[in-house]
Structure formats: C-alpha cells, structure tokens
Design a protein that fits this description.
By secondary structure, the protein is α/β, with parallel strands linked by helices. Helices cover 32% and strands 18% of the residues. The protein has nine helices and seven strands. The longest helix has 14 residues, at 94-107.
C-alpha cells in the first residue's frame, strides 16, 4: 500500500468582513484584554504546522475548534463540560472575546485558546486529522446576493475541514436564516467527505442536549425565527494502493 505524503496547506491572506469593535469596554473588561487575553491567545507559527496539543498547560485528549464563537457561551460551556479537551476558538469581535474571557475567569477554564483573527489562518496551520469536533454556529448569513461569496459555509471550507478532521469527527452547523439553511444543505449534502446525521426532521429542528444554547439562538427565537441544527460526520478516509 502506498504511503500518503502530507500536503502542506496553501498560504492564506487575512480576509475579514464586518466590524471588530462595538461598545467601548469597561475598566474591568479592558483589564481582561490586557491581562488574560495575552495568556490565552493563540500564536500561529510563521512557517510549518501548529501542534495544537502542545499549546495547553495540561495534556488534552482531543482538539475541538469553533469558528466565530460570538459571545462565547457555547465555547465556554463545552470547555467546562469537557475540561480534558483543548478548545480553539476564533472570533474577531472584541466585545464577544471579552464575554468569553469573563466566562473563562468565572469558571476557571484553562483549556481554551483564542485566535482574534481570520479563522482560515488557524485552519491552514493545523495538521491533517487533528480535530475531533468543529463548530460553525449562527454565522453571518450575508443575505444580499452579492455577499453570498462571504458565507463561511462553503465547499472550500468543507474541503479544508475534511483535511483537518479525524475520521468520524463531528461538524456542527447552526443557523436561524432559512435562506442560509437552504444554502448549507445544498453544500453539505453533496460533499463526499461528510455524512449528514439526520434521520428525521427533529434531528435538525431541535437542539441536541449536548449542544449548549447561545444568545444568537435566543435572539432568533424571540424574533420568531426557528433555529436549525445540522450535524455531520467526517467519513472514513479511503487510501488507494
């Protein structure tokens, strides 16, 4: 059987949309940014691949990644429930990062590392088959047709995640935008590396018990919008001799 040689991922340039700051930070919040954030920030190597397990103070049993963690409620809840797993979170909105830092301090979470930059830079630096679970929850739907190319759920993103995720690893995607849901289903259901785990409507219309809620979900429900929850599994790799 032929040995598959590792392929270096393509270099990425920063490409960010949307705002990075909202309301001015209070004194205590600014203190978290100045003191805690530098200690949990993820430093990406200028060359070569990142060893995700080596960036945590204690050994971890797996690596999970959340792309665009918003206010950090979900990431903090997962980290608190799975303290043996290393959590990598990407978010550029400063106020959301501060909310996560607040939860990390309150819950004494040491198994989270934060990248406050383009998530694709992290994905490009991770080695193949290193991620046990990935989350893309309530991303910006970019509803205007001319902005659809900005949507993070795309064939390109799935191709990248397929390289990074272990066989059987789970990808979770959430949205409350019906147009984006249709887009997601059109993309994920035809991707050869992922299997949609839904067996019936309840499997994607109801949030699973181990899927912590977020403020975006609550906001959607309050506005009369239905949240949708997609669970996908990374299919086993097929190696040809």
């Amino acid at each position: 059987m032929a040995t598959q040689q590792p392929v270096a991922p393509p270099e990425r340039k920063r490409l960010l949309y949307g705002r990075r700051r909202g309301r001015p930070l209070r004194t205590g919040q600014r203190g978290l940014v100045d003191d805690l954030l530098p200690r949990v920030s993820l430093a990406l190597p200028e060359s070569g691949m990142l060893d995700p397990a080596a960036i945590f103070d204690k050994p971890v049993t797996d690596i999970w990644v959340e792309i665009g963690f918003g206010g950090g409620e979900h990431l903090a809840a997962q980290a608190a429930a799975h303290r043996d797993i290393g959590m990598l979170g990407c978010e550029v909105f400063e106020n959301g990062i501060v909310k996560l830092l607040t939860e990390m301090q309150r819950l004494a979470l040491t198994n989270i590392r934060i990248l406050s930059d383009d998530a694709r830079l992290l994905l490009a630096a991770l080695p193949a088959a290193s991620v046990g679970r990935a989350f893309i929850l309530f991303p910006d739907p970019w509803p205007k047709m001319r902005h659809h190319k900005r949507r993070i759920v795309s064939t390109e993103t799935l191709d990248t995640l397929a390289r990074l995720m272990k066989d059987g690893a789970e990808l979770r995607i959430g949205t409350d935008d019906l147009s984006y849901l249709e887009w997601m289903l059109a993309v994920v259901t035809v991707h050869s590396d992922f299997a949609w785990l839904a067996e019936g409507p309840a499997d994607w219309r109801e949030r699973p018990p181990d899927w912590p809620p977020t403020r975006y979900e609550a906001k959607a429900i309050a506005a009369g919008r239905r949240p949708y929850f997609l669970r996908l599994s990374r299919r086993p790799r097929v190696f040809r001799s």
